[in-house]
Amino acid sequence: MGMADGRVVLVTGAGGGIGRAAAGLFAEEGAAHVALADRDEATANDTADLVRASGAGASVHVFDVTDEQSVAAFVDRVVADQGRIDSAFNNAGISHPSVPFHELAREAWDEMLEVNLTSVFLCMKHEIRQMLDTGTAGAIVNTSSGAGVVPAPGQPHYTAAKHAVLGLTRCAASEYVKSGIRCNSILPGMVDTPMLTGGTGVLGERAAALLARVSPTGELLQPAQIAAVAVWLCSDSADAVNGQAIVADGGGIMR
Ligand SMILES: NC(=O)c1ccc[n+]([C@@H]2O[C@H](COP(=O)([O-])OP(=O)(O)OC[C@H]3O[C@@H](n4cnc5c(N)ncnc54)[C@H](O)[C@@H]3O)[C@@H](O)[C@H]2O)c1
């Protein structure tokens, strides 16, 4: 018996490190279908191959998660094809190079808030709409960050967006608790993904200094460690967990 047996699952940012690992694990844990959303078609197709290799169905949806029409069309397409959405992992996100707070450009602020916060709102809005319409007691997990509870210096916009994801998640959890829809967020520490290493597995100077400060082991986390939390939060084993912010950083913020 797998943790995602028979589930219809959505994953955004599915072409990237954490999203790909989660999509793969949902499939390994028995998902019937994993719908993969990303703006990068090639990487999303690679994830689809991984999902299908585990015996699950996969569909690839290429769009920008900040565009409401596209988000709504994505969610509606999956429900039209698969009948419902059981689980959604709203995970797409971006990072920017660090800059001092007083030098942060308005354009950078706007882009960061659009991708890392507004997209989560849009995805939740349409996923919940469909869960209510189909009478599905679904589970939604949003990717925040350690920067959702502690500041990331040089990243006021990333910090603000990731803090706000927690509030958005809790608000939805409280509004839909009576419908059986659970909403939680994950706050990863520093994870070995293309976002952090540009696909090289090697950190830049600033990121290496940050890792030394926040990691108890000095090692990056692996995407599979975050995927495990996402898949568990969506499973029946986590049915007592709702509106929570789960820090998955190896104990970094305990230091
Ligand atoms: N890597 C880390 O150390 C770390 C730590 C904490 C939180 N996070 C969060 O985890 C999530 C996943 O990050 P990752 O490290 O796997 O990064 P990644 O860059 O490997 O993957 C992110 C994916 O999101 C997609 N994406 C970005 N903007 C998009 C948009 N507007 N529309 C559609 N797709 C879009 C990218 O194409 C990419 O495939 C992000 O929300 C990130 O903020 C990452």
Task: Write the SSE topology.
Blueprint lengths: L7 E5 L4 H12 L4 E6 L2 H13 L3 E6 L5 H15 L4 E4 L15 H29 L4 E5 L12 H21 L5 E7 L5 H4 L7 H10 L8 H12 L10 E4 L7
Parallel strand pairs: 1-2, 1-4, 2-3, 4-5, 5-6, 6-7
Helix pairs in contact: 1-2, 1-8, 3-4, 4-5
Bound molecules: nicotinamide-adenine-dinucleotide (NAD).
Nicotinamide-adenine-dinucleotide binds next to α1 and α6.
Strand numbers in spatial order across the main sheet: 3-2-1-4-5-6-7
The distinct bound ligands, ions and cofactors come out as: nicotinamide-adenine-dinucleotide
Secondary-structure element series: EHEHEHEHEHEHHHE
Q: Which CATH architecture?
A: 3-Layer(aba) Sandwich
CATH homologous superfamily annotation: NAD(P)-binding Rossmann-like Domain
- Overall structural class, as computed from helix and strand content, comes to alpha/beta
Tally of structural domains: 1
What's the β-strand tally?
A: 7
What does this structure look like?
With 255 residues, this protein is an alpha/beta fold. The protein has a single domain (8-254), classed as Rossmann fold (3-Layer(aba) Sandwich). It has 8 helices and 7 strands. It has helices spanning 17-28, 41-53, 68-82, 106-134, 156-176, 194-197, 205-214, 223-234; strands at 8-12, 33-38, 57-62, 87-90, 139-143, 182-188, 245-248. The protein has a 7-stranded parallel sheet with strand order 3-2-1-4-5-6-7, sandwiched between helices. Helix 1 (17-28) packs parallel to helix 2 (41-53). The termini are far apart. The mean pLDDT is 96. It binds nicotinamide-adenine-dinucleotide (NAD). Nicotinamide-adenine-dinucleotide binds at residues 13, 15-19, 38-40, 43, 64-66, 91-94, 115, 143, 145, 188, 190-191, 193-196.
